[in-house]
Every structure is written in C-alpha cells, then in structure tokens.
Amino acid sequence: MSTAGPAALPQPVLVRGTGLLGTSIGLALRGSGVEVLLHDPSPSALAVARDIGAGRAVELEGDVAGAGAGEGTDVTTPGTVVVAAPPDVAGRVAVDSLLRWPEAVVMDIASVKASVQTDVRAAVEKGLLSAESASRYVGTHPMAGRERSGPVAARGTLFTAAPWVVCAEPDTAAEAVAAAEALAALTGATVHTMDAGEHDASVALISHLPQVAASLVASRLQQTPAASLALAGNGLRDTTRIAASDPQLWVQILAGNATRLVEILHGVRADLDRLIGTLEAPDAPGARLDIAQLIAEGNAGQARIPGKHGAPPQAFAVVTVVVDDTPGQIAAVLQATGDAGVNVEDLRMDHASGHEVGMLEISVLPGRREELTAALTERGWKVV
Ligand SMILES: NC(=O)C1=CN([C@@H]2O[C@H](COP(=O)(O)OP(=O)(O)OC[C@H]3O[C@@H](n4cnc5c(N)ncnc54)[C@H](O)[C@@H]3O)[C@@H](O)[C@H]2O)C=CC1
Ligand SMILES: O=C(O)C(=O)Cc1ccc(O)cc1
C-alpha cells in the first residue's frame, strides 16, 4: 500500500500524450486540484483534452512540428512528467523528458515495462544520461482502461479503486517512487509495488492472454449468420468484450511482451490439443472425466480472481428483476432495494433482443437474497 501523501507529487504535472489514458489522468488530477499541463503531437488530441478540462495545453521548446493547440511555448518547468504515449515511443519520450527537465520525476504508464526501462538504461550506457538522472525515472502501469482510444473516451473516474503498479527498481530514486505512488493515490487507484519483470510476467497472464483469447473467439463470429448471433447471451458478451480493443495499441503490447506470452500460449495449446483429442472421441473411456476436469480446473482458476477493490473472491447471490425499457425503471428498483435495507454489491443490465423489457441483475450478499426477492415481489416487481 502507498504511504506517500499528495505533497510527494512535485507539481505541475506535465502529461505527454493526451489520448484515452493521458486525458483520463489529467481529468482525475484536476479533480484533486493538481496543476496539469498537457502536450501531444496531435493538435486535435491536445485540443480535445484541453477543452474537456484535463489541463492547460502547452507547446514544447524545440518541438519543431509544434502541436499548434498549445497556449504558446511553456516556460513552466514540470515537477513531474507522465509519459502517456503509445508503448513503442514511451521509452524515447521518457529519455527526452529526463534530458529536458533535469529536476523532474519522469514516469510512464505503458502496458509493458521492461522495454521502456531498457530504453532508459540504454541512454545511460550511451552516455546520454547520467545514472543519477536515470534514477528519476519510474515505470508504472494503471490496470484500468477501455476498449476505445483517444481523449473523447477519457474519464476522470477511470482509475477509481483500480490497481496501479509502481515498478520500484533498486536504481529508482525514493522520491520518484513516492511521486508515482502519490499520483496513483490522487486518481483514486490502489498502489501495487513490483519490479518490471514481475509486472510483465503478471500482465502476460492477466491482461495479454485474455485479450488474445477474446480476439480469437470473436474472430470466429465474422461469417456467423445474423440468426445465430441473435441467440447470443452474456457468455459470449463477457468473453469477447475486449475484442473491441484498438489493434494499433495491441500490436505494440503483444510484440513488447511476446516472449512471456508465448510461454503461456504453449501451455494453452497443449490443453487445447488435449481437449480436441478428447472431443474427437467423446465416448472413449476417460473422455467424460477429462472434460469434467477441464471445466473444474477453470472453476478453480476463476474462483481465485479477487473481487472489487481487491477484496477476496466472494460469491454473491443474484436477484433478477424484469423491468420495462422505459426511463426511471432501474432507479425505481434500486430505490425499492434500498428501502428494503439491502446493499447492492454489483449490478448489470441485460436486454433480450427483440423485447421491450430488460433483466436487471442485482448482486447481493447470499443471506439477503430471499429477503430482497420477497420485498421486491411485494412491491409489484417481477422477480425471475
Ligand atoms: N488503453 C488502455 O486501456 C490502456 C493503455 N495504457 C497505456 O497508456 C498509453 C496510452 O494509451 P492510450 O491512451 O490508450 O492510447 P491513445 O491512442 O488513446 O493515446 C495515445 C496518445 O499519444 C500520442 N502520441 C503519439 N506519439 C507521441 C509522442 N511521441 N509523444 C507524446 N505523445 C504521443 C498520440 O497522438 C495519442 O494522442 C500506452 O502506452 C498504453 O500502453 C495503460 C493502461 C490501459
Ligand atoms: O478493459 C479491460 O478490462 C482492460 O483490461 C483494459 C486494459 C488494457 C490495457 C492495459 O494495459 C490495462 C488495462
């Protein structure tokens, strides 16, 4: 857990790269009263970020192309630089920032950490940077995002209760670690400390494998007749949501962590080959047990995923209520739930295609299900 207070964040904070993440960081920091400067080589990305209130747009000295949307070359020296550029340029922008502002803490938020760290260390080896200068760099990664990119999709609440990894390496200055922890905490995130290698191995499994799996499943749907797709339920939606992600970003993420991901994919391939073999002869002795084992192993892995806010996994009971597809219905059900004194642990809405009704799924503590079902039924709601 972070111990750094807001004072540990040197201000102003300059965000370099005002896409989805950079603009969301700007919005979250502005919401906490932090002074934020913005820069992006794309004039439109910069102007949108500025216009939605993520900070003050600036132009950088020596940026010959000039972003054009800044309010003149900035003379303010940033106390902290957040590099929120795409992964394949994040290292270069981090080194450039360390050189430009010799006192500033420089952090990046790229999805893969070892490659950015390598770029910073290479600059030291080439004599471009002193080891002391490089110690002002700290790699970080907020584990929050969206399937969409660009500043228009940005949200100041994106990081609320999300994990934010801070890679404290032996050669990272304590003030840089403290600044990163303070920034993450100011956005509402929860700090997790690990080194870059441990981070990259972790995200290969918890982020990069799910992306590949979602893309592989969703790619099967390209030629599927509309009549079949009309039957789709939450299973398909849950397993393919992130298949809508930006290909340009994911090319860089997967290529940047390829070695670690390939190791995991070999394991997946072995399991897949075994499943295919089993299903080719489903009546062979032991085949049913093999299938049951696969599903049970999935149960065991799924049960280990922590709940919201990093809480231990918890099974909630779900109360499903049929609501008309008209304004105010969800609010009315939630009001009735509150009146019954039952806390909503989670909520989702499901629409049956071709029907004017929706299914509101209210997750509650298992011991409260009967009570809520009775209370809602008594108030005239249809609980299924
Ligand atoms: N999209 C996601 O869900 C998450 C992304 N990240 C990381 O955040 C970073 C930004 O990703 P997004 O905001 O999603 O991408 P994005 O595509 O929405 O924004 C990237 C921005 O960087 C700008 N840019 C390009 N070259 C630049 C340079 N040399 N200097 C400064 N800015 C430059 C682009 O013009 C663009 O506005 C990436 O490193 C990504 O790995 C981290 C967590 C989640
Ligand atoms: O939408 C989701 O569930 C994600 O997992 C988004 C995401 C994408 C890239 C990252 O580096 C971190 C998080």
Q: How would you describe the overall organization of this protein?
A:
With 384 residues, the protein is α/β, with parallel strands linked by helices. The protein has three domains: 6-194, NAD(P)-binding Rossmann-like Domain (Rossmann fold, 3-Layer(aba) Sandwich); 202-280, 6-phosphogluconate dehydrogenase C-terminal like domain (6-phosphogluconate dehydrogenase C-terminal fold), CATH 1.10.3660.10; 317-383, Alpha-Beta Plaits (2-Layer Sandwich), CATH 3.30.70. It is 44% helix and 15% strand. The chain has 14 helices and twelve strands. The protein has helices spanning 20-31, 43-51, 87-100, 114-125, 131-134, 174-186, 196-219, 226-229, 234-240, 247-256, 258-280, 287-302, 329-339, 369-378, and strands spanning 13-16, 36-39, 56-57, 80-83, 105-108, 137-142, 163-167, 190-193, 317-324, 346-351, 357-364, 382-383. The protein has an eight-stranded mixed beta sheet with strand order 3-2-1-4-5-6-7-8, sandwiched between helices. α1 links the parallel β1 and β2. α3 packs across α4 and α7 (196-219) crosses α11. It is globular. The model has no long low-confidence stretch (mean pLDDT 92). Bound molecules: 1,4-dihydronicotinamide adenine dinucleotide (NAI) and 3-(4-hydroxy-phenyl)pyruvic acid. The site of 1,4-dihydronicotinamide adenine dinucleotide (NAI) has 28 residues, from α1, α3 and α10. Residues 11-309 form the Prephenate/arogenate dehydrogenase domain. InterPro entries: 6-PGluconate_DH-like_C_sf, ACT-like_dom_sf, ACT_dom, NAD(P)-bd_dom_sf, PDH_C, PDH_N, Preph/Arog_dehydrog, Prephen_DH.
